[in-house]
Amino acid sequence: MVETAIIRKIPVFSMLNEETLEQIASIVAERLYKKNMIIFFEGEPGEAVYFVIKGKVKIYKTNADGKEQIIHIMQSGDVFAESVLFTGLAYPASAEVIEDSTIGVLRCDDLENLIKKNGNLAVAIINFMGRRLQFVSGQIKNLGLRDAMGRVVDVIINMAERGRETPSGIRVEFRIPRQEFASMAGTTRETATRALSALQREGSILLDKDILYIKDMEKLKRWLD
């Protein structure tokens, strides 16, 4: 059984009492995935909800031409595939591990039964899904209304939520391949690279190998006006 300390690190579950955490832990299966392994494909039956214990997972859709659009990169503490809860729907996107990862698996039947019995858990899930809906709505607006620079900036600002303040600015791990970063912004690798270079020249960001520093958040946000 997964330890309750691990469950508590998942933001959606962090405020629940120990008894509820133990109930959740009792229905979690822990799975190890190697880099590039597929967790599920878009269109497969939605049988479980997942969360990242360790590692990174790419959530993406593929169009008719085989072009990949990355929706999000999930990291430690992130929950994904929650949209299949209580719906019986298929997975709306695919999930691929992009580095060796440990993933928690909650079968829908087990989690749904627990939610029905536990009001606090039900409220936590509803709040989480509401926040996720707001995030997805923002992504749709970003892809539909903003130019390439605006989309690149929006991705950087979202990444900054996981960053930390340092004397050099907000420090963000930037180990994602440039092609995948470009896909998240809905543009080409060349365009994304030019946008990053322009942001460096204006002093908004600083790229240092696999680390990105946000030097001037207000200047960055002006690209979204």
What does this molecule look like?
- It is a single chain.
- The chain has helices at 4-8, 18-25, 108-117, 119-145, 148-160, 178-184, 189-201, 217-221, and strands at residues 28-33, 38-40, 48-62, 68-74, 79-80, 94-107, 164-166, 169-173, 205-208, 211-214.
- The chain has 225 residues and is α+β, with helices and mostly antiparallel strands.
- It has two domains: 4-140, Jelly Rolls (Sandwich); 146-223, Arc Repressor Mutant, subunit A.
- Strands 1, 2, 3, 4, 5 and 6 form a six-stranded antiparallel β-sheet that branches. Strands 7-8-10-9 form a four-stranded antiparallel β-sheet.
- A hairpin with a 2-residue loop joins β9 and β10.
- The protein is globular, with a radius of gyration of 18 Å.
- The model has no long low-confidence stretch (mean pLDDT 91).
SSE layout:
Blueprint: H1 4-8, H2 18-25, E1 28-33, E2 38-40, E3 48-62, E4 68-74, E5 79-80, E6 94-107, H3 108-117, H4 119-145, H5 148-160, E7 164-166, E8 169-173, H6 178-184, H7 189-201, E9 205-208, E10 211-214, H8 217-221
Antiparallel strand pairs: 1-6, 2-6, 3-4, 3-5, 3-6, 7-8, 8-10, 9-10
Helix pairs in contact: 3-4, 6-7
Protein name: Crp/Fnr family transcriptional regulator
Domain HTH crp-type: 146-218
GO molecular function: DNA binding; DNA-binding transcription factor activity
Brief sketch in words of this structure:
By secondary structure, the protein is of the alpha+beta class. Helix content is 39%, strand content 28%. Strand 7 and strand 8 form a beta hairpin.
